[in-house]
Amino acid sequence: MNRKYVFFLFFLVFFCLGCNFKKAEENTNKQNPVANKKETKEEECVPVETSIIQAGEISSYLLLSANLETEQMTDVYPRVQGWIKKIHVEEGDYIEKGNILLELDAQEHELAEKRSQIVYEQSKNACDRCKAMYQKNLKSLEDYEEAKFMEQRAKVEWQQAQLTLSHTKIPAPISGFIGERFRRHGDLVSTADKLLTIINTNEMIAIIHVPERQIQNIYKNQKAFIESDYLKKEKLDAWVKRISPVVDSASGTFRVVVGVQNPQNKLKSGMFVNVHIVLDTHINTILIPKKAIVYENENQYVFLVKDAQAHKTKVIGGYQTATIMESLEGIQAGDQIIIVGQANLKDKSKVKIVPSRI
């Protein structure tokens, strides 16, 4: 009996204490209703980051990959046989067209040129004497014509000897970099021996193989650009330079050569690049950041901020790149779109715009 009485007393005490605590909390809320309401409101608002929608330009592309090649590359051969006397360039040197690359020993060719000059001068003097005698009827016309023929032949032989002598100095046929040198000082070379390779890197090409279904969309001088991991985010302007008229029956593709200028020598032969050929361009169109898109049941949505609320808006997409997408309807320039914090939002959720962390 005593145990039941004690238990009842404990229960009564705790009950009274609980009622007093609840009453005190209610009194506190009544005393500061504004602060309580503000606290509740802040708890309901979701912090988000936003961006202003703008109109711009976007294109659709045909994306293919290739390795860069040099448009101009030539091997240098001697035009006469001889010993290499001087080498004026080394691998990696840049040279202009016409600069002397190597010199062959020219002694024999100099003697041959001198001998041909003497023969020509003798023939010319003989022709002049024969002409004077012919005019005095001391020589026949046949004699004069023979002397004139000998002079002309000697002149051609002298010119040939001069040309051969000039070939002992080997000029650069194009401007570019020395890619490789195959011979050393003192080597005896013939006209079949490769001396150097010259590479002009001012213009590079990428050879791509385009599916035949795109044949109507590709034309000469069409705009393009290339990207490479080596170039990071830089894009280099390019253009369609040549188009093969023949479709490869085995692969169902046709060959397209894309040119790109390389004045700063950033591009290297053999570099792997992505080639983007511009197929179509939309100007003054609404562009939205792709990171703002929420995917739901195969549909695309974004949240627009109006009156401190997030309004769920369906997006009809058009052309797109890696970071932006064209919106065909439902969004206007100047709209405020949520780009961070939209993942768990619901339509008409209360939001609080916070500064971007970027």
Brief account:
By secondary structure, the chain is α+β, with helices and mostly antiparallel strands. It has helices spanning 2-31, 33-44, 107-135, 141-166; strands spanning 46-52, 54-76, 82-87, 94-95, 100-104, 169-171, 176-181, 188-189, 196-211, 223-227, 236-248, 253-261, 272-289, 294-296, 299-306, 309-314, 317-320, 324-327, 336-340, 349-353.
Task: Describe this entry's structure for a reader.
The protein has 358 residues and is of the alpha+beta class. It folds into three domains: 47-60 and 283-353, conserved putative lor/sdh protein from methanococcus maripaludis s2 fold, CATH 2.40.420; 63-71 and 200-275, Elongation Factor Tu (Ef-tu), domain 3 (Beta Barrel), CATH 2.40.30; 73-197, RNA polymerase II/Efflux pump adaptor protein, barrel-sandwich hybrid domain (OB fold (Dihydrolipoamide Acetyltransferase, E2P), Beta Barrel). Helices cover 27% and strands 42% of the residues. Strands 14-15-16-20-1-19 form a six-stranded mixed β-sheet. Strands 2-9-12-11-10-13 form a six-stranded antiparallel β-barrel. The protein has a four-stranded antiparallel β-sheet with strand order 6-5-3-8, with no helix packed on it. A hairpin with an 8-residue loop joins strand 10 (223-227) and strand 11. Helix 3 runs antiparallel to helix 4 (141-166). It is elongated.
Secondary structure topology:
Blueprint lengths: L1 H30 L1 H12 L1 E7 L1 E23 L5 E6 L6 E2 L4 E5 L2 H29 L5 H26 L2 E3 L4 E6 L6 E2 L6 E16 L11 E5 L8 E13 L4 E9 L10 E18 L4 E3 L2 E8 L2 E6 L2 E4 L3 E4 L8 E5 L8 E5 L5
Parallel strand pairs: 1-20
Antiparallel strand pairs: 1-19, 2-9, 2-13, 3-5, 3-8, 4-7, 5-6, 7-9, 9-12, 10-11, 10-13, 11-12, 13-18, 14-15, 15-16, 16-20, 17-18
Helix pairs in contact: 3-4
